[in-house]
Every structure is written in C-alpha cells, then in structure tokens.
Recover the amino acids of this structure.
C-alpha cells in the first residue's frame, strides 16, 4: 500500500506540474482503438487549494488542440498483451495528435479497461480534535478506514471519499471548517491487477512519455456520459467497447462501484465471421452497415451480398438476409447484457433511489440495442453521448469517445483521492470486506 500511495502521489505531482506548464495529453488505450487528445490548459483557471494537496478539484479551463485515433494493436481485453505492437500504436496516435496541436507533450494521463477491477466500500470514523474539522482530521478519518486484504499482485487504482458525515449530518461533500465531534467517511476503493498498470507505464516510457495519472475507463466514461441529475440520484453506465464492457455505478456525484465484463463488439463481429465464413474485416463492415438486434418483416426480404475473394465462385457470391444477420448478432448481445444484469444485481444496484441506465461506447450504436437493453436491464435505459468539450473535432464526439472525453474532465477537474491528503501510510491492510455497494443505502 505504501509503495502504491507514493506512486500515485508522484503521478499527482507530475500532473500538477503539467497543468501549470499549460499542456497535457490524455490517452484512451482501448482494444479496438487508441485515442489521444492534447489539451491546452487555461492558466488562469488552475488553482490548487494549499500546498499539501488537500483537494485538487479546482475548476480548470481547457480546450482540445490536438486529436488523433488509430486502430489498436497489441491490446486485448483492455490490457497490453504485445508490447512492441502497442508501443507502435500509441506512438502513432500521440505523434499525430502532437502534429495537429503543433506542440510536443511529455506527460500523458491514461485510462484503460479490463485488469479485473474489484470494488470495495470502506468506512472510517474519528473524533474531531479541535472545534472545527481540519485537513488533518480528514487525513485521520481516511487513515481510519479498514482496508481489506485485497491480495498480492493487485494495486489500488482509485480510493475516493464518497461521503462525509459529521455527528448526525450525512451527505457532506467537504466538512472542512464545520463544527462537530465525530467525523466519519465512506470510501470507494477500486483495485486492479498490478501488472496491467506496470505494463502501461513501461510501454509509455518506451514511447518517451511520462505517466502523470491513470484512471479506470468505467469511471471516466461515467463522468462524461451522465448528466448532473443522474450522477446525483444514481445511475449505471454500461460502456460497450471492443473486447470489454465496462460497468460503473454513480451516486451523489461519485463512482461507488465498477466492474468489467470480458465481452464486447468484437465478439459480435467474430460470431458473424464464423457463422458466415467471411474475414473479420468483412464481418465488421456488414455489422456496421446492416447490423441490428430486432428483426422486422422487411429484414427477410433485404439481402446482403457477401463478396468474398476465395476463388470459389459459389462461396464468394453468396447472399444472406438481414434477418439472418440479426439472428447471429442478437444471442451474443443478449449474453453481454445478461452478464451486465448479473453484475448490477450483485452490486445492489436495485437498492439505489434511481435505476437509470446509460449505454455508451462504440458497440452501443447497434440499432435496437436500447430496446433490448431495457427488456433485460430494466425500463429506464437511454443511449448516451459524451459532453461537448471545447475544440473537440466533430468526428470525436460520438459514444465511442466517451472515455476520451471523460479523460479530459478527469485531467482538468480531478476528484479527491486518498493520496491527495497527508494520510499516515504505515497502516497494514486489516479485515476483509465483502465486495458490494449495499453499504450505500444505509448512508443516504
């Protein structure tokens, strides 16, 4: 824990320096695409409250001055599995974004999916030392949280205080300066497989880039795709990518649960490729142009020419109906949504006051998906697009760029994390806690 705490603190200081220099890059390392955005930071907007950290969440103005995307290589299930290929793809995206911005960047803040995320809800309580709550009291209450024994080979990716209570008053976002006797907090902690972060950091070093921050794709997608009311009252974001589907639950403007299903749009493409015996590139094109999950009477009549080039005339000149294509796609999409439903149930999503679900990510654009999802996941489902940010090219405003846009917001307006406070780090992980968010319903 100590090593990780210091690593996160070092990255936080690097991010602070990059923001003060006025330029930083954000990188979305996905399984189907790698996107890089270069941000120009508005110097007048940068302000940190106090030198000892204690909340970075200053409202920082920014605009996108460079953007590039390239087909992902060497990344599978959101994790790097072939270093040279991933390095080439990241270099390609970063260099193209730098060229458009006409500026060199040294620091990147990256996000990734996968790495087997596990969510924990922790609680801590201390007596306030003076009359009013100080920065030190917050550090003490965070240190009082019972950290579970989350296992060897795992690292803490996020550790965010999601609620403070002072005596009988709960739901406080910042209790500093308020008068009371007993301060308690709820903390959401997300751990991931440590090698995923280490491989990403090493890969960026090979690209001559410094990692100035790292985030979960599920988290940043949520902050870019949910409107304020949804973040406040409770909502789940389902981010359907190429090989992973990220799940995040938000409440009171904080993420309180995250998970990943190791299936996505590429699995649908693979099913089409195998069923029709055509190359994956053909299958992807057919899925994009004709795909869907709800068949109508007209779909039996509409034919798709497969146009292969194997040399076998009968095989190459085949046709299938749109209804047949939908019949291939639907079972896999249903399987993904059923698995998402299972994870949401395990997290206690049905205990939240609002059960809004927002679908985003590149694979969420399959026609009819929202209707199918509302049948499997619950009635309140909408398709989400990321917020508009200054300078973002039109081509990068779709659902497939939700995590890239979220990274901009994460870079410019980070939420408090455990390591933003001078927490004593000589604490050893103690009793284990079960992995769920049911603790949340007791606090609000």
């Amino acid at each position: 824990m100590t090593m990780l705490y210091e690593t996160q603190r070092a990255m936080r200081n690097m991010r602070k320096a990059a923001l003060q220099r006025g330029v930083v890059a954000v990188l979305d390392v996905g399984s189907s695409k790698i996107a890089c955005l270069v941000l120009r930071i508005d110097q007048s907007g940068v302000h940190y409250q106090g030198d000892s950290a204690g909340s970075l969440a200053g409202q920082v103005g920014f605009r996108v001055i460079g953007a590039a995307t390239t087909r992902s290589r060497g990344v599978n299930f959101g994790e790097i599995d072939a270093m040279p290929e991933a390095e080439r793809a990241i270099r390609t995206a970063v260099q193209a974004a730098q060229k458009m911005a006409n500026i060199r960047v040294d620091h990147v803040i990256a996000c990734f999916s996968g790495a087997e995320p596990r969510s924990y809800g922790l609680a801590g309580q201390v007596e306030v030392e003076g009359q009013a709550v100080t920065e030190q009291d917050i550090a003490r209450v965070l240190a009082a949280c019972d950290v579970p024994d989350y296992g060897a080979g795992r690292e803490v990716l996020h550790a965010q205080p999601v609620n403070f209570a002072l005596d009988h008053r709960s739901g406080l976002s910042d209790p500093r300066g308020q008068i009371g006797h007993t301060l308690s907090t709820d903390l959401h902690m997300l751990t991931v497989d440590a090698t995923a972060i280490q491989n990403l950091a090493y890969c960026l070093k090979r690209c001559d880039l410094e990692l100035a921050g790292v985030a979960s794709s599920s988290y940043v997608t949520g902050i870019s795709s949910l409107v304020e009311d949804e973040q406040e009252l409770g909502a789940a974001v389902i981010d359907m990518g190429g090989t992973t589907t990220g799940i995040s639950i938000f409440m009171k403007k904080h993420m309180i649960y995250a998970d990943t299903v190791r299936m996505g749009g590429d699995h649908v493409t693979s099913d089409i490729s195998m069923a029709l015996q055509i190359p994956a590139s053909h299958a992807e094109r057919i899925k994009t142009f004709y795909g869907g999950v709800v068949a109508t009477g007209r779909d039996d009549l509409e034919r798709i020419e497969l146009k292969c080039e194997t040399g076998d005339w009968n095989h190459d000149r085949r046709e299938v109906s749109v209804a047949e294509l939908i019949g291939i796609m639907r079972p896999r999409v249903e399987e993904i949504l059923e698995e998402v439903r299972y994870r949401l149930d395990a997290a206690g999503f049905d205990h939240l006051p609002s059960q809004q679900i927002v679908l985003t990510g590149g694979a969420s654009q399959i026609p009819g998906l929202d209707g199918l999802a509302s049948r499997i996941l619950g009635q309140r489902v909408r398709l989400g697009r990321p917020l508009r940010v200054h300078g973002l090219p039109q081509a990068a405003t779709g659902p497939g760029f939700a995590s890239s846009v979220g990274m901009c917001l994460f870079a410019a307006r980070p939420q408090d994390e455990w390591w933003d406070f001078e927490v004593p780090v000589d604490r050893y992980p103690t009793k284990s806690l079960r992995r769920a968010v049911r603790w949340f319903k007791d606090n609000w």
User: Anything to note?
Assistant: The CA atoms of residues 186 and 281 lie 47 Å apart.
